[in-house]
């Protein structure tokens, strides 16, 4: 959930000299190696880019790609070393927010929760587009929901639009062991959050679920069977402190329809998308959801390498 996909450019600026003409081919090969889960080979290709083309117009892309390859290989320390000082080395790079976010992912996966929180916050505050800002906000809040309690020194520097959401998630985690008065004192200034916290138990939370399946056409009976299963599971969850809000879309087993629906669901902020049914249609949908970090649960895809398209 926290290690969401980070989008990075697929095309490079024009090389500054003939000696740099080989860089695009090496970069393309590194991308292919990542798609094929050949992470160690991708690390070597990206390292060649960093070492051989330090003055290339795309040097920041190469450094970010190096860090990302290290992260995907499981070398979180190496990824942090690769990205250390990124913002000072490339002060005009559009990848600075993404580099902060990737460092947050590395820190979180390494058990360094405070560092992860700080770096997600840096990514949020330096974001130059809504998608990156939303992704970093989700990761930061998810870390708190998972049990991290930022100290007062961190709460003191949070932007006003993040302070109450963070504090409300902290309050939910301790609501069963704190009095109403204690919760209200902690949430002073966040009156809109107080009514959502119960005295002795966590409030019922809502899971926003998008379902994308072929409900018409030749695969409709398979799609309908999966939809029926999802609805039964949602009904079972009523026994837990959780409600489920479901939006159902008919992909018609069509790439364009699925891409449009996936993008709409991702932009609406759903917590999870189930579907599509077919591997090739699901691959198209994954391209639309990966940058927002929306988890895609594909119940029937069997195409080799499908899972490598996105960590989510």
In short:
This protein has 312 residues and is of the alpha/beta class.
Description:
With 312 residues, this protein is of the alpha/beta class. Helices cover 54% and strands 7% of the residues. It has a four-stranded parallel beta sheet, with helices on both faces. α13 (220-236) links the parallel β1 (205-213) and β2. The longest helix has 17 residues, at 220-236.
What attributes does this structure have?
flat; 4 strands; 312 residues; 4-stranded parallel β-sheet; alpha/beta
Distance between the termini: 7 Å
Rg over CA atoms, rounded to whole Å, is: 22 Å
Task: Tell me the strand percentage band.
Answer: 5-15%
**General form:** flat
Overall pLDDT: 80
Q: Within the largest sheet, what's the order of strands?
A: 2-1-3-4
Largest beta-sheet characterization: 4 strands, parallel
Number of DSSP-assigned strands? 4
Helix content percent band? 40-55%
> By helix and strand content, what is the structural category?
alpha/beta
Identify low-pLDDT runs. 1-10, 198-204
SSE ordering:
HHHHHHHHHHHHEHEHEHE
- Note the total helix count: 15
């Amino acid at each position: 959930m926290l290690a969401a996909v980070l989008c990075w450019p697929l095309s490079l600026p024009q090389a500054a000299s003939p000696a740099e003409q080989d860089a695009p081919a090496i970069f393309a090969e590194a991308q292919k190696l990542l798609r094929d889960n050949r992470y160690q080979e991708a690390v070597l290709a990206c390292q060649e880019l960093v070492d051989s083309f330090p003055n290339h117009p795309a040097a920041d892309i190469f450094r970010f790609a190096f860090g990302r390859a290290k992260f995907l290989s499981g070398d979180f320390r190496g990824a942090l070393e690769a990205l250390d000082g990124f913002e000072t080395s490339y002060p005009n790079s559009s990848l600075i927010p993404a580099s902060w976010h990737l460092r947050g992912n590395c820190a979180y996966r390494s058990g360094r929760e405070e560092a992860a929180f700080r770096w997600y916050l840096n990514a949020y505050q330096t974001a130059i587009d809504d998608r990156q800002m939303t992704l970093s906000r989700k990761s930061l809040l998810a870390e708190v929901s998972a049990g991290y309690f930022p100290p007062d020194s961190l709460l003191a520097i949070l932007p006003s639009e993040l302070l109450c959401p963070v504090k409300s998630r902290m309050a939910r985690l301790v609501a069963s062991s704190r009095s109403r008065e204690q919760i209200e004192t902690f949430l002073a200034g966040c009156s809109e959050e107080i009514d959502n916290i119960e005295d002795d138990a966590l409030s019922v939370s809502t899971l926003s679920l998008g379902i994308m399946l072929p409900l018409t056409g030749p695969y409709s009976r398979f799609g309908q069977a999966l939809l029926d299963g999802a609805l039964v599971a949602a009904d079972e969850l009523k026994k837990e402190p959780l409600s489920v809000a479901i939006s159902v879309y008919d992909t018609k087993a069509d790439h364009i329809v699925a891409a449009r629906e996936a993008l709409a669901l991702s932009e609406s902020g759903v917590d999870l998308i189930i579907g599509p049914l077919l591997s090739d249609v699901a691959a198209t949908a994954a391209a639309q959801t990966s940058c927002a970090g929306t988890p895609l649960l594909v119940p029937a895809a069997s195409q080799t390498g499908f899972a490598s398209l996105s960590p989510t």
